[in-house]
């Protein structure tokens, strides 16, 4: 019997969290969650997690296995600015993406370079890249996907709002087929449910068809949000496969 090649075993990716760097052009953190029983011959959907104000890439990616341990490869990025918000023993590494649009050029490079690096390392389907934004990160997800609707298969916007200082819905024809999942806490006092409903109505007026659901929580992420988001994505993929399309954003 041939000897067991231990080097091949150690090189096989396994489920879990991995840290690396992406150069954009400076070195910036990239955190990755690989699904259970990662299969290198299967092109996985990719979810890009964008954290809330005062959080970081490690905290936000903890949601990934709660959404699904097997359906996606997930990555998370870090906000461009450190912030004093929640700066205590529990949240000593706190970051923000900055005011609306203030760092979009850098963030744009960061996101696309992170996607490219992930593609170089793992098998992902570039037609199934989703932006998952939480609170402040949801606003960033809207800005990025509305600017490049052909690059993303959909948006998950949880407890967030549309950009306030831009007119993000100007590309009506390009945006009308962009899927959006909106999950919102009914008791959210930071971004009220009524405010989020107005955002939903603005998208509907622009010809979009956002999925909207409220949950019994405040500004926090409810576990059912993640379960529903997973169901929503998988239904999109199944419908896409039945229709014989390679992408549902174009």
Question: How would you describe the overall organization of this protein?
Answer:
The chain has 250 residues and is an alpha/beta fold. The chain has one domain: Alpha/Beta hydrolase fold, catalytic domain (Rossmann fold, 3-Layer(aba) Sandwich). 33% of the residues lie in helices and 24% in strands. The strands form 2 sheets. An 8-stranded mixed beta sheet has the order 1-2-4-3-7-8-9-10, sandwiched between helices. The protein has a two-stranded antiparallel ribbon with strand order 5-6. The longest helix has 21 residues. It is globular, with a radius of gyration of 18 Å. The protein starts with 5 loop residues before the first helix and ends in a 7-residue tail after the last helix. About 3% of the residues have low confidence.
Could you write a compact summary of the structure shown?
The chain is globular. The chain contains 8 helices and 10 strands.
């Amino acid at each position: 019997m041939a000897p067991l090649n231990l080097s091949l075993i150690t090189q096989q990716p396994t489920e879990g969290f991995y840290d690396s760097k992406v150069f954009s052009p400076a070195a910036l953190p990239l955190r990755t969650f690989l699904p259970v029983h990662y299969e290198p011959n299967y092109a996985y959907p990719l979810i890009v997690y964008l954290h809330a104000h005062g959080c970081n890439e490690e905290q936000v990616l903890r949601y990934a296995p709660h959404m699904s341990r097997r359906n996606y490869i997930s990555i998370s990025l870090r906000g461009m600015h450190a912030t004093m918000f929640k700066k205590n023993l529990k949240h000593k590494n706190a970051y923000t993406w900055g005011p609306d649009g203030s760092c979009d050029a850098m963030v744009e490079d960061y996101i696309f370079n992170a996607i490219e690096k992930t593609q170089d390392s793992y098998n992902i389907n570039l037609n199934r890249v989703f932006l998952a934004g939480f609170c402040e990160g949801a606003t960033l997800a809207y800005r990025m996907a509305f600017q490049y609707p052909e690059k993303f298969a959909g948006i998950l916007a949880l407890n967030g709002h549309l950009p306030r200082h831009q007119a993000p819905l100007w590309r009506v024809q390009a945006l009308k087929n962009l899927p959006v999942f909106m999950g919102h806490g009914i008791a959210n006092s930071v971004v009220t449910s009524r405010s989020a409903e107005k955002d939903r109505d603005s998208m509907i007026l622009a010809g979009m068809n956002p999925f909207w659901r409220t949950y019994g929580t405040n500004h926090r992420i409810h576990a059912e949000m993640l379960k529903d988001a997973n169901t929503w994505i998988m239904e999109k993929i199944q419908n896409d496969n039945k229709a014989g399309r390679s992408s549902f954003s174009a």
